[in-house]
Amino acid sequence: MTKLDHLKVICFLVAGVLVVAATSCSQKPASVSEPTATTSGSISAEQIAKTYGLDSFGQIEAIRYTWNAQFPGVNVSRKWTWEPKTGQVSYEGKDKDGKPVKVTYLRSQLDSQPANVKAEVDPAFVNDNYWLLFPLHAYWDNSATVTDQGVKQLPLGNGSAELVSVKYPSDGGYTPGDTWDLYVGKDNRVEQMVYHRGGPRKPSLVTTTWEGYKKAGPLLISTDHNGNADGNQARIFMTDVSVKLAGSQSWINAQ
């Protein structure tokens, strides 16, 4: 069993690229029978997480995907393989200077890893994993308070959806007080998301769609996020998503 521990929701710049990295949490990706987030309102974190495959997550042996970010003048890709039960992470991409990096490590042994793994690779892993699986992380995170605020107008385009806010504490972590506003449709799928930074660092506001939905085994994944960061065009998207189930050697491609 692994945890993505002691990281706070944070937006920051890495090699000129916006990154929204993830939360102060003590989560249980291999054992999710009990709720951990504090929830109020009619739509709960558990209901949303179940839509994205919560009940079947224990079947997941490994997840493989490429996280991509496109901004004006920037195009970044990072390849990951994550084994939730063992905490093993494999990464292939580039460092902040553009040099190729390929590494495999156990998150439980992060302290013994080289400086670049601790300072660059693992924070990037947490960030990218939250973009991939945020509805599950919102349920697993024991520090989050999830509140259904009723039907609100969508921040991008026309229409409306149920606004479910995921708020983190005002103390601890890198940027206390961050909030993720999820605009949830009647099918309990996230349609759009707004990220509000709790601290003074930029960007302060990130707004994106949740689209390009695909099934990877039992998991439902939004593979495309289009929108803006403090008014500047931004796109985050996932490619080559696949999962390996317990007892199988075959990868199941998202489709």
Unreliable stretches (pLDDT < 50, length at least 5) are 5-18, 21-28, 30-35
What is the CATH topology descriptor?
A: outer membrane lipoprotein receptor (LolB), chain A
- Major beta-sheet overview: 14 strands, mixed
How many independent structural domains?
Answer: 1
Indicate the overall shape: globular
CATH architecture: Clam
Distance between the termini: 28 Å
Order of secondary-structure elements: EEEHEEEEHEEEEEEEEE
- As a whole number of angstroms, the C-alpha radius of gyration is 17 Å
Quick check: average pLDDT?
Answer: 85
* SS class: mainly beta
> What is the helical fraction, as a range of percent?
10-25%
